[in-house]
Write a structure and sequence with these properties.
Largest sheet: 6 strands, mixed
Structural class: alpha/beta
Distance between the termini: 116 Å
Strand content: 5-15%
Length: 1539
């Protein structure tokens, strides 16, 4: 290297590149470093812009561009011209080669630059000044020009006639400077009017801002990546606007993200996929000439008759996999090359590192070698980073394409498949194909390349090991392979425990559900303790399995951590046993390589697992895609009948709901499948045909047969105007999740006149006035916010608005009352539709008198056709029909009153809901410090500190063992230097330092060293023993840490659950009433699952990473203190980067999940409305809608993926900077004779793995944050649930209340702040042993009396006395346990009868049997199998009445003096009711009984009656007095009941 430089510069080899010569900068230094290098940089960057695509808009270039392009060409010419005088007069200006090199490079650079400018000028950049970086780089060669100019002036050779060559070169130099100046002027002051230019410039920038959100402004700007230069593509500069917007919190909707690149746009991807599908299908067609078919996916645009797609056996042969292969295969496999290049380059790091350390140890190697190695390290790590990053980016793009293709293929297939064959799958299963199965296939894309690259890596590493230690490596390999079955066993055990744990978890969640549903009763009976023990018992079992899992996991972690040490020791022992001599080099290299073996061994099982899952999913989707399609060509007859007025004609046609081949397979026809036979049916255009028949006779099947939804087994079906489809109103109206207007328009243009007419005809005008936003009101999923009648009418309106020729109406009159039905008949079916052909199925025969003909169907056959006069009497004569018809008529007036209220009820409900359920709060931004603190306390401060300390010990011992190796190396190289031993090569060195996480390590070619002096072996033993003991300590700390961590997180899980449960048990009833059960359950299921398993897993990784990073930084700064100067700014950069990224990343992930659910909702909606969509020929529109939704979602996913790559490449660059800095500093230290080569090697080997670590650190931190949200949510409940008062101020006697005297004094009670008082100054007294009946209308405050008595809701004012003691002073548990209640809704929990009667287990069996006998339940219980038989979930093995009796039995068991009965004996027959009343009278003769009556006859024999009205006591007297008193409320109630 030195000699080359010396030859080029004409200097001495000792100092080939003098910087300072004779008082000015050395000419050679000037030309090479200040001239050639800047030009090369400019050339490379300019070349990056050569690929910029043209802009579509034909706007002429601004004149500033012309000036710059011209000067660039001129400069290229000037540099070429400069070569001429040099070659003519060779001696005058330094060596010829140097000048030719400098000028040639410069000329080439400016040529490339001018071409780049031409490209930029024609692209979008033509409006602006172009990239600033490019303009700045043109100034880099300027210092060189100026130094040369100064040199000419100093030496006085500028204008000397004696040297014509020199003078001409000076003239050329001046011209070059002038051109450069002109270039700068061209950049700054375009010759266009300044104002005009500025306005263009600013408008363009605005354009850029506007078009970013994806509003189609100039197309190129809105689109991601397309039209960007290579530089921008490699470093994702085009993502900057999105990142910035996310950081500012402006990413609120998908439109704020840039559009997908053209090649990823869903429509393009799908077109490509389908064309490949058609090619494949065509190939199969050629192979099987006999069968005519086209693709099973691509029926004609709308599945109508223009697509010949009769599919038979050959359909199955088109494999989804082969189509994907054809469509995306080339791109997918070619990425393998990029992957391979990245893998190979990553081997370069260790190789060069080895050479660099050798260079530092030997004092003989020339400096240039060191510089070369350092540059190599830079280039290798830089390119490896670029390749890796581009690979994963491009891979994500392919994965997105595959995802788009598969999702739209499934959707498209669902639209084409005949309805009957689709019925084999549930909606859930098909939606699953779209979600789970597709994502598994997408993951396959990512893991496929690992499948070949891991073994490849493994093989290379093994080969290198073999080179180091020969056959001895087999010893270690055997051990490594032995661990595979051990791991398999561990994994199986973990899986088993995991299954068990989930079982216990399900039981616990089920218990919680019961607890939450019966919370009132549980509080009435004070059973919280009982439930708490049951739930805790389940939780204990669950935690036991979790403990087993965590400890097994800890063993796994430990095995992987200890594996490298064990293997390497095994290798060394084998090596020594084989009679070889160990040297430091061997030890290191072996260690480094063993570290590299671990990764493939570790990740391979996961990769295989993913591939097997993908195979299963592929088969499932394939099976779905092989279903039979609707084949309209074969179904309908093409040739029209002789009579042109015929609208529908069917001859000898037979249909069934299952395909022919399946029927033959199951010989006896299953009863469920109805077959339909139509001998002869023909309809003229404009007829109204009524179809009647009893339930299940085949009316709807006839309509389905006409619409083509059944399998035709034979015969002929003709329908005129097939292409335009039918107007179809199905029996179960199908409503889309959109506005009412959109539902009616169904994709057609809005035509105000027609719309009004249709709305009026379908009796919707009034309804639209009631709805909050008129016809712009959103109806919920499946139209939940509408009543049944409204749904039916909207569906009818949709059909009418489509203006088809043939209408199939399946009982649209069923859900509406008589008036409305009449309106629909007159205004719609006989009005708007009077000129259309209509087929109307209905049970309401009274409306069919106006029909042109009627058709009577029974059991799938046509019984008779004829005029209404012929058929109606028959129908009415059918006794069944007579009944129905009468029922219908009786019902009609009610219904009329009935349908409208549903609306108002609905409204009340929604308003109440607004009051009832508070919206769940979503916390924004990062997780608060409080949450981390809460988790820390849950683990326990001392334990948490211990865990952190063991982590510290583990990392320290790890780093010390690495340091020990480097120390060993240094001491050996010193002994080598001091002893007389001569090595034939420079002393080998720590190439193997790489055994650190770094990963890849270089082969040290076996260096033939002269025999080591005898003291070597002693040394080796000593070093090995110390190393072994450090490694042993490390493995001890590792296992300690693993088990401590498992224990700590288990403890946290236990504590968090206990606190949450305790708080929930003490919550007020109001809290449970206002919080949906699902929301509370969520805390106990998914959030706790996070705290149990997901959080510890990711937290473990995160903590290990932090410690690893700290360990690295310590070692690096210890080895090279100067590196601190580089590390500080990089650390600041790193923190700002990750902060910037995390904010955007959060927003993007949120947008992704928001845009994902519409795809699934739209899909399940489509599946439920398939027949309507197909009948009205809207399949193409729906396919397009699906594409648009998918496009939105892909957009967010693409942005989210790219943001990760954006961060990744920046972190990789930080890593590259660290590596280069270390190498540079090492060389400087070497020159200054400082530094320890062993430590430098160590520092570098660490630095190589630092990038990887940085990106893992960010992702594990982000994940930890997401998981911490679960802790936040559980914390929120442990602190925020309002609790019942727990204090007790009075100690009461054991038999209190002994008399049973109940006094209410001015009791005022409201359920919640801001609600009206439910009890408003209630005062009355119930004497001991009195029986009091309580009556009143709904909402008068009857049940509230009991709530007040039991202190379920605290009083606002007033007091309730029991035996003279204020109930507020008694502890809640005592108060409730001394009162008995029979609640209105009988609540039983899963468990035995014994548990349900007596959860605390205080009673004997005899007592239980006696009670059951008295409640007339003994027989039922004996039948079930005695007291220990299970009652099932919520007591479902008992009838409602029996459950009621169980609750009575509970009350009988308590010896309470006061009994409250909220009677709902509605579920018990009259006779049992009388028996019960008798039992209560007998058993509670001496007790105070308060009964809320719903059947007045039950309280007519009570001592007094209390009549409540609007929360006040209205009347209180004996029943006889009140019933005789004129105008009393009680009398009024009695009369209304009797009527």
């Amino acid at each position: 290297m030195e000699s080359i430089l010396a030859g080029l510069c004409g200097t001495s080899p000792e100092d080939p590149l003098p910087v300072w010569v004779h008082g000015s900068v050395g000419h050679c230094f000037n030309q090479l470093t200040l001239n050639v290098i800047p030009h090369v940089i400019l050339a490379v960057v300019s070349a990056c812009f050569l690929g910029t695509p043209r802009s579509d808009s034909r706007v002429p270039c601004r004149s500033g561009w012309g000036c710059r392009i011209a000067t660039s060409f001129v400069l290229a010419g000037l540099f070429l011209a400069d070569i001429v005088p040099v070659t003519i007069s060779q001696q005058e200006l330094g060596p010829v080669y140097l000048e030719v090199l400098a000028n040639g490079t410069a000329a080439l650079t400016w040529l490339v630059h001018s071409l780049a400018l031409v490209m930029l000028c024609r692209s979008i950049h033509g409006f602006t000044r172009g990239p600033v970086a490019l303009a700045l780089l043109t100034l880099l060669p300027l210092p060189s020009f100026i130094i040369t100019l100064v040199w000419y002036c100093q030496s006085g050779t500028a204008w000397s006639p004696a040297h014509p060559a020199t003078s001409s070169r000076f003239a050329i130099l001046c011209l070059q400077l002038a051109s450069l100046l002109a270039y700068v002027v061209g950049y700054l002051f375009p010759t266009a009017g300044r104002q005009d230019f500025l306005s263009i410039n600013s408008s363009c920038q605005e354009d850029q801002l506007v078009s970013e959100p994806g509003i189609p402004a100039p197309d190129e700007l809105a689109v991601a990546e397309d039209g960007e230069s290579w530089l921008s593509r490699f470093f994702y500069i085009w993502m900057n606007p999105v990142m910035k917007r996310g950081y500012q919190g402006k990413l609120n909707q998908p439109q704020d993200i840039c559009m997908l690149p053209r090649q990823l746009q869903t429509a393009r991807v799908c077109d490509r996929f389908y064309s490949c599908w058609q090619k494949k299908a065509a190939l199969h067609q050629v192979e099987e000439e006999a069968v005519s078919l086209t693709s099973p996916m691509v029926a004609g645009g709308d599945g109508s008759s223009d697509a010949p797609d009769s599919l038979h056996c050959a359909q199955e042969t088109v494999r989804l996999f082969s189509v994907l292969h054809a469509a995306f295969g080339f791109r997918f496999y070619s990425l393998g090359l990029l992957h391979l290049a990245g893998k190979l380059l990553s081997f370069s790091g260790p190789l060069l590192l080895n050479l660099l350390v050798n260079f530092m140890e030997s004092r003989q190697e020339p400096l240039s070698h060191g510089v070369l190695y350092a540059l190599g390290l830079f280039a290798g790590s830089f390119l490896a980073a670029l390749f890796r990053n581009q690979f994963s980016y491009e891979m994500n793009k392919v994965a997105l394409m595959v995802r788009a293709a598969i999702i739209s293929a499934i959707y498209r297939k669902a639209l084409r498949v005949s309805g009957a064959s689709l019925a084999r799958f549930t909606v859930g299963e098909i939606v699953n194909f779209m979600s789970t199965d597709t994502s598994r296939l997408v993951n396959f894309c990512l893991s496929f390349h690992e499948l070949w690259s891991l073994p490849f890596q493994f093989a290379i590493t093994l080969y290198l090991l073999y080179q180091q230690v020969g056959v001895a490596f087999l010893g270690g390999l055997a051990l490594a392979l032995l661990l595979v079955p051990v791991n398999k066993i561990l994994a199986n055990r973990i899986m088993m425990n995991s299954k068990e744990m989930l079982k216990h978890k399900d039981t616990r969640v089920k218990l919680m559900t019961e607890f939450l549903c019966g919370i009132r009763v549980i509080k009435y009976y004070t059973w919280e303790k009982h439930f708490s023990t049951r739930i805790n018992a389940c939780r204990a079992k669950e935690l036991q399995k979790l403990r087993a899992m965590n400890y097994l996991d800890a063993v796994c972690v430990y095995l992987w951590a200890a594996l490298p040490v064990v293997i390497s020791i095994a290798i060394f022992i084998t090596y020594v046993q084989l009679g070889h001599q160990l040297t430091a080099t061997k030890v290191f290299t072996a260690l480094a390589l063993v570290g590299m073996l671990i990764l493939p061994l570790n990740s391979f099982p996961w990769v295989l697992n993913g591939i097997l899952e993908a195979k299963v999913s592929l088969d499932r989707i394939q099976h779905f895609l092989e279903l039979m399609d609707q084949d309209l060509e074969a179904y309908y007859a093409i040739d029209s009948p002789s009579d042109t007025a015929t609208a529908v004609e069917m001859r000898c046609a037979a249909f069934s709901w299952v395909p022919v081949e399946e029927e033959s397979a199951r010989q006896p026809l299953p009863t469920g499948t109805l077959q339909l036979h139509v001998e002869n049916l023909s309809l003229r255009k404009g007829m109204l045909l009524g179809v009647v028949g009893k339930v299940g006779s085949g009316k709807s099947s006839l309509l389905a047969a006409i619409a083509g939804e059944l399998f035709k087994q034979g015969g002929r079906v003709y329908v005129c105007d097939l292409e335009q489809g039918f107007g179809l109103a199905t029996q179960e109206p199908w409503i889309q999740f959109t506005t009412v207007r959109e539902n009616i328009l169904f994709g057609r243009e809005y035509d105000a006149r027609l719309y009004e007419e249709v709305v009026e005809a379908c009796a919707l005008s009034e309804d639209l006035n009631i709805l909050p936003a008129g016809d712009q009101t959103e109806v919920g999923e499946n139209g939940v916010t509408l009543s049944g009648g409204q749904k039916a009418r909207i569906a009818l309106a949709r059909a009418v608005y489509q203006e088809k020729e043939l209408y199939l109406l399946d009982d649209p009159l069923a859900a509406v009352d008589a008036d409305v039905a009449n309106h629909l008949m007159q205004k719609c079916i006989l009005g708007v539709l009077k000129h259309k052909t209509r087929i109307l199925c209905t049970h309401r025969t009274e409306f069919l008198e106006k029909a042109d003909a009627l058709l009577l169907i029974d059991n799938g056959r046509m019984v008779k056709t004829g005029t209404p006069a012929d058929i109606l009497p028959l129908v009415e004569a059918f006794p069944k029909f007579k009944d129905m018809d009468k029922r219908q008529k009786d019902k009609a007036p009610d219904e009329q009153g009935q349908e409208e209220p549903t609306e108002t009820e609905k409204e009340e409900l929604t308003q109440n809901n607004n009051l009832m359920y508070k919206e769940e709060e979503k916390k924004e931004g990062a997780v608060a410090f409080q949450v981390y603190k809460a988790y820390w306390l849950a683990v326990g401060t001392w334990l948490a500190l211990l865990i952190l300390f063991s982590l510290l010990l583990m990392q320290a011992s790890r780093n010390i063992s690495d340091w020990w190796l480097s120390y060993w190396i240094s001491s050996i190289s010193q002994t080598a230097n001091t002893s007389v031993m001569v090595c034939s090569a420079s002393p080998p060195s720590p190439e193997l330092l790489l055994f650190s996480a770094a990963g890849l390590v270089s082969p040290i070619q076996a260096l033939d060293t002269t025999p080591v002096p005898s003291n070597g072996s002693v040394d080796v033993n000593f070093y090995l023993i110390v190393y072994g003991s450090i490694a042993g300590a490390n493995s001890l700390f590792t296992i300690l840490r693993a088990f401590l961590f498992a224990y700590g997180t288990l403890r946290a899980a236990t504590v968090i659950h206990n606190r949450l449960l305790q708080r929930a048990l003490k919550g007020t009833v109001t809290f449970f009433d206002t919080t949906p059960t699902g929301r509370i359950l969520n805390r106990f299921s998914s959030d706790l699952y996070c705290v149990d398993s997901s959080l510890p897993f990711i937290l473990n990784i995160f903590l290990a990473n932090i410690y690893q990073l700290l360990g690295m930084l310590v070692i690096i700064t210890y080895g090279l203190p100067w590196i601190g100067l580089v590390l500080l700014p990089l650390t600041v950069l790193y923190f700002s980067l990750q902060h910037y990224y995390r904010r955007t990343s959060r927003e993007l992930k949120r947008l992704y999940s928001i845009t994902l659910s519409p795809i699934y909702t739209h899909f399940s909606e489509t599946l439920s409305g398939l027949s309507s969509i197909r009948a009205m020929r809207a399949t193409q529109r729906f396919e397009l809608e699906n594409q648009l939704r998918l496009e939105q979602n892909q957009r967010c996913l693409f942005a989210s993926n790219t943001a990760m790559e954006w961060l990744d490449i920046r972190l990789q660059m930080i890593g590259v900077a660290v590596v280069t800095a270390i190498a540079g500093i090492a060389i400087i230290q070497h020159q200054k004779q400082l530094g320890n080569p062993g430590l430098v090697g160590l520092a570098l080997s660490y630095a190589l793995s630092v990038t990887n670590l940085l990106s893992i650190l960010i992702s594990s931190f982000t994940h930890t944050e997401i998981m911490m949200v679960s802790v936040e949510r559980t914390e929120e409940y442990t602190t925020d649930i309002p609790m019942e008062p727990q204090d007790k101020l009075v100690q009461v006697a054991a038999d209190w209340p002994s008399q049973g005297l109940v006094e209410f004094q001015d009791v005022v009670l409201a359920y919640r702040e801001g609600l009206p008082n439910a009890l408003d100054g209630v005062t009355f007294t119930v004497y001991p042993g009195e029986k009091l009946g309580i009556v009143g209308r709904t909402g008068s405050g009857k049940s509230t009396l009991f709530l007040a008595l039991f202190r379920m809701v605290e009083l606002k004012s007033g007091q309730i006395l029991l035996d003279g003691v204020d109930s507020r002073l008694v502890g809640l548990e005592e108060l409730r346990s001394r009162l008995a209640i029979i609640p209105q809704d009988p609540f039983l929990f899963s468990g035995s009868i014994r548990e349900n009667l007596d959860p605390q287990g205080k009673r004997t069996d005899a007592e239980l049997h006696e009670v059951l006998e008295q409640c007339h339940l003994q027989d039922a219980v004996t039948q079930m199998g005695g007291l220990d038989s299970e009652v099932g979930e919520r007591g479902k093995s008992l009838s409602l009445g029996q459950r009621q009796l169980m609750c009575l039995a509970r009350a009988l068991l308590t010896q309470a003096k006061v009994l409250c009965i909220d009677e709902a004996t509605a579920s018990v027959d009259q006779k049992t009711d009388q028996l019960l009343q008798q039992t209560i009278r007998q058993r509670f003769a001496d007790k105070t009984v308060l009964t809320i009556a719903h059947r007045l006859n039950t309280i007519l024999d009570s001592d007094r009656v209390l009549v409540m009205q609007a929360g006040r006591v209205a009347e209180l007297d004996s029943p006889t007095h009140l019933s005789q008193k004129d105008g009393s409320l009680f009398q009024h109630l009695l009369h209304s009941r009797q009527q």
